[in-house]
Amino acid sequence: MPRYYLRHPTEIPIFLNMAEPPQTLKEDCRDYSAGGLSCISDRLIYPGSAVHITISLSHPEQTVSGHVIWCHKHPAGYLMGIGFDDPDQAYTVRMIEQICQIESFRLKQQRNGRQLSNEQAAAEWIALHAADFPTHEQLQ
């Protein structure tokens, strides 16, 4: 079975909250899969570090727990892989990712001169792309 990854919209940042040392980092998310996500950080974060991932598109904000699996030097800083701590949180991130894809679609339409409400953008995105959005099982 092929492994599926989704490219996260670049205009929608994620925030990592670290317990040790306490800090919040804004990161550029790259890809999402059922097993986790990858993002670029300007800081080295050691594998095993616990993180809380927040994406601020929904109200209330959604936060899930994870941990850094790997971290490699990258031209833009450090590319790291973050794993989710349980399957329910992985499913939550999949739902958040759909919201991010819809918001990215709405922003693209806005740049092209079309003003869509959140509801209109969701309806259009669903009609155009929902069938191609990988299921949770396909992402595993």
Describe the structure.
By secondary structure, the protein is an alpha+beta fold. It has 2 domains: 6-84, predicted glycosyltransferase like domains (Thrombin, subunit H); 98-135, no CATH class. The protein is built from 3 helices and 7 strands; from the N terminus they run E-E-E-E-E-E-E-H-H-H. A 6-stranded antiparallel barrel has the order 2-3-4-7-6-5. A hairpin with a 6-residue loop joins strand 5 (50-55) and strand 6 (62-74).
The assembly state of the depicted protein chains is single chain
Which parts are unreliable, with pLDDT below 50 for 5 consecutive residues or more? none
Q: Could you tell me the radius of gyration in angstroms?
A: 15 Å
- Secondary-structure-based class equals alpha+beta
Can you tell me the overall shape?
globular
> How many discrete domains?
2
Q: State the name of the first-level CATH class of the largest domain.
A: Mainly Beta
Number of helices: 3
Q: Main β-sheet: number of strands, strand sense, barrel status?
A: 6 strands, antiparallel, barrel
Task: State the end-to-end distance.
Answer: 9 Å
Measured by DSSP, the beta-strand proportion falls in 35-45%
Describe what is shown at a glance.
The protein is an alpha+beta fold.
